Amino acid sequence: MKKITFLFLLTGFWAFGQDFVDVTGNLPQLSNSFAAWGDYDGDGDLDLYISGALNANSNGGGLYQNDNGSFSLVTSSGLPLYNLGDAEWGDLDNDGDLDIIIMGFDGTNGDTKIYKNNGNGTFTSVNAGLSGVYMGDVDLNDVNGDGMLDIAITGFGTPNYVNLAKVFINNGGNNFTELTGLNLPPINYGKIKFVDFDSDGDLDITLNGWNNAINNVYTKVWQNDGSQNFTELSLNLPQLWLGDFEWGDVDADGDLDFVIIGTAGSDSEAHLLINNNNTFSEDPHFGNVTGAHRVSALELADFNNDGSLDIFISGMNVVGSSENIIGKLYENNGSGIFTENTNENFEGAQYGDADAGDYDNDGKIDLLVTGADASNTFGVTKLYHNEHTGAVNDILQNKFNIYPNPAHNIININNFDNFDYTVNLTDLTGKSIVRKTTDGSTFINVTSLKPGMYLLRISDNRNSFIKKIIIK
Predict the structure, then answer these.
(1) Positive or negative CA dihedral for 462, 254, 250, 404?
(2) Measuring CA to CA, which residue among 147, 34, 155 is closest to residue 88?
């Protein structure tokens, strides 16, 4: 396994009050780009796959192995370099290590393939019969509850040059079949995600983009009845495209709210829809959040470790004749009211991606931004290390006993003083897996989770702390 090592040094001016430091080093500056964090080598930290256009004639990027915060380009990984695509890590063959699905434009056609992890830093392409697409999105989750990861894809398909949105069921043995009876509309420049928006224990589908069937923008939820029969719902969601969306419990009431950016015409928009027993209403306090489109990016994670989900937005903000590339962090006060952190100096990008993840395992969510500059001429890639100092509060931490760790079935959380607090179990990218509020001792069932490292965040109305959890 041949590697080229890049040492990421802290660079740039350290401004008073800044928590995020530019540690980009020699990562390639890419446009029409995308990235994905994943621990492919099983050593407990996040590695990086990134790909996009270096210039008009060639693509760049690849697999970067993380070794204590120093990243090495694995030149013999066997992974392709595409642009206008997406990638997602997941154990698709249930052999205990992370494989990766990659879709994008290879210079001639769209392509979508699974790359099996060989366990030695190399990957082998698997012919799984998936639709080749680009200018779209891919997501992985177990939609039918059989213990294997299924695939959702949307994008511009080749060689027939039609837009599509499909779900493929994992039958094992690298055999995938399209989910029959699911007639998702053809979507261009779209996003697709599995999510249990109604908290009924099965995965629904959220689809967003340009719907060619109606020649208009589109944002809809397709509800799962528990038997993989999906119904398009008429929820009050903003109809946008060329943006991004995320689900998360931003108001800490136990259900998933909906954040979306994009455009319905020319101006950029940003919306927060609060979930009220599976009906949605616009949050009136969200008007100060700046929208973005032109393939913009949205990340929802607890960046300042206060127990609440914050928002990062990257992309082109358009209002009338004014156009500006933005990279903005909005912090949540705990009840869904967001205020911009103006101390930070992020470089934003259009036609790209943003990915949050704790790459150095210090309990703080770091951030990668990639895409094109304002003129759509040069590539941008920035890795920001989170230096926030309020990660652990010893006073609060001493009031809990958390065991066992490592865990296999149950994590017990004993609260000695029986006060109100919130528990949020996340993966290393900051994605919330279990979130609950209680006033006593509680537990989390982790039987269904993949082995690896997770972050347990506990907070009350004043303090918070994070504990690393190993699941075997």
Answers:
(1) positive
(2) 34
Per-residue pLDDT for 152 more than 80? yes
Average pLDDT over residues 23-46: 94
User: What is the 3 state secondary structure string of the chain?
Assistant: CCEEEECCCCCCCCCCCCCEEECCCCCCCCEEEEEEEECCCCCCCCEEEEEEECCCCCEEEEEEEEECCEEEEECCCCCCCCEEEEEEEECCCCCCCCEEEEEEECCCCEEEEEEEECCCCCEEEECCCCCCEEEEEEEEECCCCCCCCEEEEEEEECCCCEEEEEEEEECCCCCEEECCCCCCCCEEEEEEEEECCCCCCCCEEEEEEEECCCCEEEEEEEEECCCCCEEECCCCCCCCEEEEEEEECCCCCCCCEEEEEEECCCCEEEEEEEEECCEEEECHHHCCCCCCEEEEEEEEECCCCCCCCEEEEEEEEEECCEEEEEEEEEEECCCCCEEECCCCCCCCCEEEEEEEECCCCCCCCEEEEEEECCCCCCEEEEEEEECCCCCCCHHHHCCEEEECCCECCEEEEEECCCCCEEEEEECCCCCEEEEEEECCCEEEECCCCCCEEEEEEEECCCCEEEEEEEEC
Query: pLDDT for 79-130, tens place per residue?
Result: 999 999 999 999 999 898 999 999 999 988 999 999 999 999 999 999 899 9
User: Are 295 and 262 contacting, i.e. CB atoms less than 8 angstroms apart?
Assistant: no
Q: For residue 20, give both structure tokens.
A: 């995020």
Lowest average pLDDT, out of 153-157, 449-453, 467-471, goes to 449-453
**Token pair of 157, please?**
């398909």
Burial class, 215, CB count within 10 angstroms (exposed 0-12 / middle 13-18 / buried 19+) = exposed
Mean pLDDT of 154-169: 89
pLDDT in tens, 6-17: 444 444 333 446
Percent pLDDT > 90 in the chain is 62
Encoding tokens for residue 387? Answer: 């230096």
- Cα 394 from Cα 415, distance rounded (Å): 14
Peptide bond into 28 cis (omega under 30): no
Cα–Cα separations (whole angstroms), residue 403 to 397, 443, 469: 13, 9, 9
The answer to whether the beta carbons of residues 147 and 169 sit under 8 Å apart is no
